[in-house]
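Lesson 9: reading folded outputs for more than one chain in a single document. The general rule is that every protein is listed as its sequence immediately followed by its structure tokens, and records are never interleaved. Here is the first one.
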Amino acid sequence: MEIVLTINGKKTRAEAGTSETLLDLLRRLGYKSVKYGCGEGFCGACTVIMDGRPVNSCLVPAVTAGGREVITVEHLGTPQKPHPLQEAFVEAGAVQCGFCTPGMILSAKALLDKKSNPSEEEIREALDGNLCRCTGYVQIVEAVQLAAKRMKEKKRKREKKIK
């Protein structure tokens, strides 16, 4: 079945099998940041942002993604100009093997899009569906806090320029 969805701001037409997941479709289309972990929605390695909310793409039938907006880590930044979350994850030592990192970053982005100054408890709650087997979570929480601080400072500077 042909579906049309927006992936990283680009309208995309794709054939989707009735048993194909959004994870499988995205990987087939070349989005390699979306990882296959458990295939059961427990690990968060396949997290993407769909219509502003983090979802486990391994649980989303691809055909239901028609008409939806999907964001993957490929949309956030480049090696030359990374997103503040990407920079903060590196600086805080929150990246070890990197397998869980894209899902963690997208879950954190969805949180920061809604709440610019989350508490540690709110960060931990937002990341609850993302498992990391390498770092523990201290560095990851610190990275989200650092990114939130930098994003607020950047916003303040932009607002000053406008005035």
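And here is the second record, again sequence then tokens.
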Amino acid sequence: MNPEKHLPLTETTFYILLSLLEPGHGYAVMQKAEELSGGRVRIAAGTMYGALDNLLRQKMIEPVLSKDPRRKMYQTTAKGAHVLRLESERLKHMLDIYNRIQGDG
């Protein structure tokens, strides 16, 4: 299966995958995404849980054991990390082209 078919990622998906490079639960991911994005990305609970279900189906995240049985914990899979890396490279390529055309200042 071609991982590039998942590109481009939405900002929400990008920050969820990035946040789940370390295991976390939905609420913690919502907080971390907001922190990492400097407040630009705020994920509502409904959006978060829909995105988690979608990422689980795509095998880009997986459940992990939780010390608290009331909280479902997830982590980015190798596939999800690969897609995240591809997206980062895609964005860097676009930024490099912009900087080359516009100049670095």
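What the second record shows: Helices lie at 11-19, 26-36, 45-57, 78-102.
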